[in-house]
Structures are given as structure tokens and as C-alpha cells.
Amino acid sequence: MAPPLLTLTNMSLRFGPDPLFSNAELAIGERDRISLVGRNGAGKSTLMKIIHGTVEPDDGERFIQPVCHVTYLEQDPDLSEFSSAHDYVASGLTHSSAEDHFQVDIILAEIGLEAEVMTSTMSGGERRRAAIARALISDADILLLDEPTNHLDIATIEWLEGKLKNWRGALVMISHDRAFLNYLTNTTFWIDRGKVRRLDKGFSHFDKWSTTILEQEVIERIKLDKLIEKETDWSHKGITARRKRNMGRMRNLWELREKREQQIAVVGSARLAANSGKSSGKKVIEAHKISITFDKTPILDNFSVKILRGDRVGIIGPNGAGKTTLLKVLTGDLKPDQGNVKLGTHLEPTFLDQHRSILKDTDTVWETLSDGSDHIMVRGQPKHLISYLKDFLFESSQAHSPVGSLSGGEKNRLLLAKTLAHPTNLLILDEPTNDLDMDTLDLLQDVLSDYDGTLLLVSHDRDFLDRLVTSTIVMEGNADVREYPGGYSDYVRQRKNRIDNPKASLDKKIKTNKNPSKEQKNNNKKLSYKHQYALESLPKEIEVISSTIRTVEQKLAKPDFYSKDPGDFQKTTQELESLINKLEAKEEEWLELEMLKEETQ
Question: Would you list the DSSP string of 522-589?
Fold first, then answer.
């Protein structure tokens, strides 16, 4: 067996009063594909910098083989010293021959960057692609990658996976992208309470391995009659419990996807029904034959979709395909050039702001969440602030810490806590996984799995989509937009079947056209007098029912109502439920007639 390329022995490092590492050891072999994992703040990026040699530990020894070259891709690389993409990427060359510079142009073309683009005008995604190109051109013996997939679309991530799969040297990767780590890694380093534990298997085995270790430690502590150490108490128990719930949630998700597949099949063979969505309704968004062009480039062309309450819809596609534009059209912020979008009534949308603009560094964590009380209303239910903070992996001692003192991952968790406390039945997330650590990503998935509203999610995280969404809208460019039941993996499988069996899809389409449904035949009819009268009278009926509901709700809201007359309280509750169902039926009828009216015009 070849000797390791690099070793760290008895390595210790202290930041402030607490040690970050204590007598940690690791070795990196020439064909290792290492995932570096650990809780937020455990020291993953610091350990990478120690491996790279840019940070020196307080104690211990770092040994590296002679002429072993190490390249480090930082999360936020500095491009300010270079004027163009070509200059920046070429700075990563270990040699400087004309042939090497030719390779720079090749890799820039592969990753989709113009050689002469100015670094000062680059977007976040362009900066990330330039940094990846610079790292790959270095031909390093050890390549260190800190969150390489941030701000990349799925096509670029898969291109990067192909490059790294054939990398001749060792790889050490920090990433929240589980699919990326599952595909590439054969070794796992787990930073846990100052130690670096090694598993000679890839990241796909990490959850089971780490959970087993934590459970064994708990058993040993119980046997020794010791208290559970502070830093492993609620956090590790919470993580373990969430992992054990995953299988049940996945079974539920599979059932939802089966239902969604049936709904999509109906949409494909008949005219879309009208929209009626509210907190207790069924239909939330219905887009009918929408088209939109941006800068003379078609984004959508005759696209239709129906989104029901409780659906979790993922939106994917390459950067620039128009995902955010589609999101704005579906939520009513942007009007399509053709077609129409019907939004359900009583919608309470919430947009998750990943720019953290609602957080103030000078406020404490408590002040950020509290309105002066020690309780917070979480989607209509009171919960103590400390208990709510623990749900988001905060310690009680952090409640009065200023926001400015939090780490990036902690700020993201606080942002989730504040945003998700508000009542909402339509949650809109535009690339929420960018810059999230894995703990926060797991927490977000956990919260969204329990969410009973409707979710629209733009994301490049394939595993996140697979674990969460009931259907996926895919924007493949050139206005080619389709909806597939299931997550990303389901889309890949179904797309392959569609491409491999085009005749089956064509036969199905011909059969549908030859046998139009009853609803399609009705599209050719004019609006009857009865329908016209209902269309005019229903809004008044809806307003009367809505007013009655408000009165009944005010009656139920009286604090002493139940204690004074439990029987009347139960009767009034049933009356409210009946009124809500009646309102839903009237709204659906009105919206169906509105759609029918537009179809006959």
C-alpha cells in the first residue's frame, strides 16, 4: 500500500476558551474520495485550511509528501486581483506553457464562461464556475473543495461530477449536496466534538454509522450513570429522531406522488378545470396555456399546470432558463403574454428571503422572534420562545446573543424560524439550499415535510427534491417545459422512457385526440343562460356566506364560549365547517364558469 500523501498527527487548535480540535489525526491517500462532515461550527472549513497549510494548528504535526501539490477551492474566492476569467483561471496553473493556456480556454468553454468576461461583473454563479475551472486546471494531487455546488445548476453539477469521478488525485469535499457526495465519495471524515472520526465508506453510509455511534455512547453513559454531555444532549437526540422518521415520511411522499401522477394524467387529456384555492380548499394555482417571452427569448410556450392544496412542486432547469420568471407568473407577480393564471382565494403566500434582509445584527435572537412576549405564535399556535429556538438547533443560552455574533448557518436557521412562524398556506422558496450547511438543510427538509400547505420550490439540490416534492416542473430551455410526477430521479427515469419510446407517447396523444373527453366536447358549447345567470349571482352568494363565516368565527373566538355552553360550541363548530364547505363549492363553481366563459369567447 502506498504511503499517505498527507497526515495530521496529534493536531490541536483552540479558538477562544473552547478547543476546536483536540489531538485529532487523519491521513489522506492518493485515491481517497473524502466527504468532510460535521455540525455547523464544528470546524470543517478550518480543517480544510489546516490541510492546505494556510492555517497552522496550535499543536501537532502536518506531514506532506515532497512535490505533493494541494489546491483549495474556497467558498468565497477572491477574484479582485484578476481582470478577466481567463487571467484568474490561468493563475491556477502549475506550469505556464502555451499548451497549458490552451487548456484554460478549453475548460472555460466546457463550464460555459467567456474567457474575456470581467471578474468585476461576474454573478455568483459565474464566480463559482470560474473558481471550479481554476481548481480543475491545477491538476492537484489533493483537491480541497468547500461547497463546490453552490450557485450551480444541475447540468453543471453533473458535469463537475464527471470531471471529479476521473480525477487522478485525492479529493476532500465539504458539501450540503447529498447526491453529489453519495456519487463521488468512498471515505468519510466526521468532525465530532474535537475528534476526526474516519469511516472507510462513502457518505451514503454516514447517517447509519453516526447514529449507531451516538446510540452506543448513550448506552455507555447510562451504564456508567453519567449525565449526557451538554454539547451532545438535545442536538444529537433531535438529529437521530429525525433520521428515524425519514422512512415513514418517504412512504407518505410516495403515496402523494402516486396521487400527483394521476392528477397530471388528467391534465394531459382534458381541459384544465377552474381554480379555487384557500386555506381549506383544494385548488391553489391553475395556469392555462401560458406563454411568455423575455428579451426576445421564449421562456414558456403554451404551458398548463394545475397545483392543488398540499402539492409540493419543484422547479428545475439550467441557469437562465427562466425558473424565477415561471415562479413569478404562477404567483401572479408577472402577467404572461398569452394564456391565463387563476389563483385560489384566501391565499396567504410567504416568500423565504435567503438574503437575510429581515435580520438585524444589533438585535438579539430573542428580539428577532419576540413581539414582547416570551411566547411566539407559530402558525396560529402559541409556543415558548426557548422551545421554538431548540426546534431550530439553538441552545437556550443563545437567546440573548446578538444576531451579528451568529455564524452563517445559525443566521439561516434564525431566518427559517422567523419566516416559518407566520401563518401561510403557500410557501415560495427560490433556491433556498444555496449557502446552507447540512444541519440547516436537514432542518429545512424536516420542517417542510411537516408543512401542510402548498410549496413551490426552485432548487438545484437533487436529493432535496427527491426527499420532498410530489412533482417536478422541468425547464429544459427553448420554452420546453413539462411537469413530471415525483422528484428529480423520477424525472430522469421518465424522461429517458419518453426519449427511448417516442412512438408510445405519440400513440397516446393520437388516441386522446381521437377520443375527446366529455369535458373537451363541452368546450365547444356556448355559455347557456343558466350558466350566465349563475356567473352573475354567485359572487353575491359567496359574499353572504363569507360574512356569515366571519360572524361564526367571532362567536367561536370568545374565550368563555366553550365553558359556558359546550353543546352550543360543538354545534357552532359544525356549522362553521358546513359553511366553509359550502363556500368552497360556490367558489369552485364560479371559477369553473369563469374559465368556461373564457373558453367560449
Answer: HTTSPPPHHHHHHHHHHHHHHHHHHHHHHHHHHHHT-TTHHHH-HHHHHHHHHHHHHHHHHHHHHHHH
Exposed, middle or buried by CB within 10 Å (0-12, 13-18, 19+), for 212? exposed
Q: Quick one: what percent of the chain has pLDDT higher than 90?
A: 42
Kindly report the number of other CB atoms within 10 A of residue 96's CB atom. 9
Contact 427, 454 (CB under 8 A): yes
Any idea what the Cα angle at residue 395 is, between residues 392 and 400, rounded to 5°?
105
| Radius of gyration of the chain, Cα coordinates, nearest whole angstrom | 28
SS3 217: helix
Grid coordinates standing for 221? Answer: 453513559
Give residue-wise pLDDT tens across range 553-596.
Answer: 778 777 677 777 878 877 887 888 788 778 877 877 777 777 67
Locus of grid cell 485515491: 31
pLDDT for 2 equals: 83
Domains of the chain (ranges; CATH) run 1-69+142-204 (3.40.50.300), 76-139 (no CATH), 262-348+424-523 (3.40.50.300), 352-423 (no CATH), 529-600 (1.10.287.380)
**Residue 593 and residue 517: Cα distance in Å, rounded?**
18
Cα separation values, 256 from 330, 464, 489, 520, Å: 21, 16, 16, 27
pLDDT reported for residue 117 = 93
The C-alpha cell that represents 239 in the structure block: 438529529
Tell the residue number behind the cell numbers 443563545, with chain if given: 398
The CA distance from 596 to 520, in Å, is: 11
Angle at 462 between CA 333 and CA 214, to 5 degrees: 120
Task: Give per-residue pLDDT as tens, 489-499.
Answer: 999 988 877 65
For residue 243, pLDDT over 80 is answered with: no
Q: If phi over 0 gives left and psi between -120 and 50 gives alpha, with beta otherwise, what is residue 600?
A: alpha
Q: Which of 323, 326, 339, 324 is nearest to 291 (CA)?
A: 339
The pLDDT tens digits for 52-66 are: 999 999 999 999 999
- Please give the grid coordinates belonging to residue 459: 432548487
- Average pLDDT, rounded, for the chain: 82
pLDDT band of residue 44 (cuts 50, 70, 90) is very high
Q: Which of 197, 177, 167, 173 is nearest to 34 (CA)?
A: 173
Only one residue has cell 437567546, namely: 399
User: Do residues 40 and 410 touch, judged by C-beta distance below 8 A?
Assistant: yes
The H-assigned helical ranges of 482-528 are: 488-500, 502-514, 518-522
Is 233 a residue whose pLDDT tops 60? Answer: no
More confident residue, 441 or 175: 175
Query: 543: how many CB neighbours lie within 10 A of its CB?
Result: 10
345 vs 178, residue with greater confidence? 178
Whole-number Å distance between alpha carbons of 510 and 512: 5
